[in-house]
Specification:
Layout lengths: L9 E6 L2 E6 L5 E2 L37 E2 L11 E6 L9 E6 L5 E4 L2
Antiparallel strand pairs: 1-2, 2-3, 4-5, 5-6, 6-7
């Protein structure tokens, strides 16, 4: 809420055991009895209602949609694998190459 006098942001404070909004700049105070919507700002966490728990559904995509490359699998020695690039580190570092063997399904990473 903004102060009607000077336009600054008003902050919630307790004064004489009562919750009020007070302007930091000019000291203007909002009387809670005159502003019923003002009390919504002081809602405690115990009053927040939570909805039903969400269920997560994982949809696996077929791996055949990924591009293939010639690379040797460290597990079975196959010379072909699917690959994808992911930014696993900060943006100024190169992407991580993630390979999945077309023969045994083994997954490994390569970094630059």
């Amino acid at each position: 809420m903004f102060c009607p006098k000077c336009g600054s942001i008003m902050i919630p404070v307790r004064e004489n055991g009562q919750k009020i909004l007070r302007c930091r700049r000019c000291g203007y105070k909002v009387d809670p009895s005159k502003k019923p919507e003002f009390m919504k700002l002081f809602r405690s966490t115990s009053e927040i209602e939570h909805g039903p728990k969400h269920e997560f559904i994982i949809i696996e995509k077929e791996i055949t949609t990924l591009p293939k490359t010639k690379v040797i699998c460290p597990k079975c020695g196959n010379n072909e694998a699917y690959f994808r690039l992911e930014q696993t580190r900060s943006a100024d570092e190169p992407s991580t190459r993630i390979f999945t063997c077309t023969n045994c399904g083994y997954t490994w990473r390569e970094y630059d």
